[in-house]
Amino acid sequence: MSRTFVMGDIHGANKALRQCLERCKFDYKNDHLISLGDVCDGWPDTRACIDELMKVDNLTYVFGNHDMWTLEWMQTGDTDEIWLKQGGEATIKSYSSGIPVEHVQFLDDAVPYYLENNKLFIHAGFDPKTPVDVQGLDIFLWDRELARIALDFFQKNMTTKLTTYDEVYVGHTVVPSSRPISSCGIWLMDTGAGWTGSLTIMNIQTKEIFQSDPVPSLYPGIQPRKKQ
User: Fold this and answer.
1) What is the pLDDT of residues 10-53, one digit of tens each?
2) 181 pLDDT exceeds 90?
3) DSSP secondary structure letters along the chain
4) What residues pair up with 35 in beta bridges, in sequence order?
């Protein structure tokens, strides 16, 4: 029987990606993987990460803000100064032998959000007061307000539902915890793989969590990028 998994931001950490898939015994042919975006930038293996994700037959890849920066560079050669400081240099180095057209297409085909069985999967967030289908990438890729409110309610032990969806899964905002945080119908899935944390994958039916080792331990000698 096939399973559905959701994964937080990968940020070029292919060793962590492979550990997560191995530890949950992911079936590349039958299981469904929903990646919440930002496969790019940070650790040195963006190219290898995309190669690995492309092996998954049932993949839903949600567009992230780092994916947007990377796609713009792939298509135009333009580099954003902030992007370079936030992991873009590592991505460029990972493509030193060239950019496969399939990788450009992979990022270009990413969805702005994914909705299934009243469960919403989105990279950064959205405005719960406005229908999601009339909102745009600016909020989908950059919003932190939804995550901020969810974290605030979590710390106050509040249970007020924040959206009309049964569950909302987001990445982008790193949680102050080693494990994902569930608050008021929001699952915050970014456990800091892009910096000093681990990568997380979760079975959305059972809520069973599988994690990589702390990513810096997988890339000894490479300093995590600084948060800005």
Assistant:
1) 999 999 999 999 999 999 999 999 999 999 999 999 999 999 99
2) yes
3) ---EEEE---TT-HHHHHHHHHHTT--TTT-EEEE-S--SSSSS-HHHHHHHHTT-SEEEEB--HHHHHHHHHHHH----HHHIIIIIHHHHHHTTT---HHHHHHHHT-BSEEEETTEEEESS---TTS-GGG--HHHHHH--HHHHHHHHHHHTT-----SSSSEEEE-SSPPSSSS-EEETTEEE---STTTTS--EEEETTT--EEEPSPHHHHSTT-PPPPP-
4) 7, 61
